[in-house]
Amino acid sequence: MSWTEFTVVASLCAPTGVLKLVMALIYEFNLALGVFNLIPLPPLDGGHFLPYLFPRAGSFIHQLEQAGPFLLLLLLFSGAAGRVVRPVIHLIDAFYDSAVRFLI
């Protein structure tokens, strides 16, 4: 959701609706941050799993550690990170939604 969409929706909502909207945005942001952090690049936490997944690729992982920040910037500025993260976010969100509906 873009900032202009957020301001339009927030201005149309009642005071209790604004709180609901803010909580939904915080939820989406935290979910996106968690999924993004698990991308398997060494500057991120997902990069810590690479030696366990590929134990014989030590030299490649070392080279990836050096080029990781540049690859991360490339992913961010090209929009490829969104293409990777967005489907995972929707999957997790659907799972949470069904789990909450089941419990309620």
What does this structure look like?
By secondary structure, this protein is mostly helical. It has one domain (about 25-104). The chain is about 80% helix and about 0% strand. It contains 5 helices and no strands. It has helices at about 5-10, 15-35, 50-55, 60-80, 80-104. Helix 2 packs across helix 5 (about 80-104). The radius of gyration is 18 Å and the shape is elongated. The chain starts with a helix and ends with a helix. The model has no long low-confidence stretch (mean pLDDT about 80).
Question: How is this fold's topology laid out?
Answer:
Elements: H1 3-12, H2 15-37, H3 50-53, H4 58-78, H5 80-103
Regions with pLDDT < 50 over 5+ consecutive residues? none
Q: What sort of overall outline do the alpha carbons produce when their principal axes are compared?
A: elongated
Fraction of residues in H or I helices:
over 70%
Structural class: mainly alpha
The ordered string of helix (H) and strand (E) elements is HHHHH
- Total count of helical runs of at least 4 residues: 5
Total individual domains: 1
Query: Tell me about the biggest sheet?
Result: none
Distance between the termini: 27 Å
Number of strands: 0
Q: What oligomeric assembly is this protein in?
A: single chain
- The whole-number mean of residue pLDDT values reads 81
Strand content: under 5%
Rg over CA atoms: 18 Å
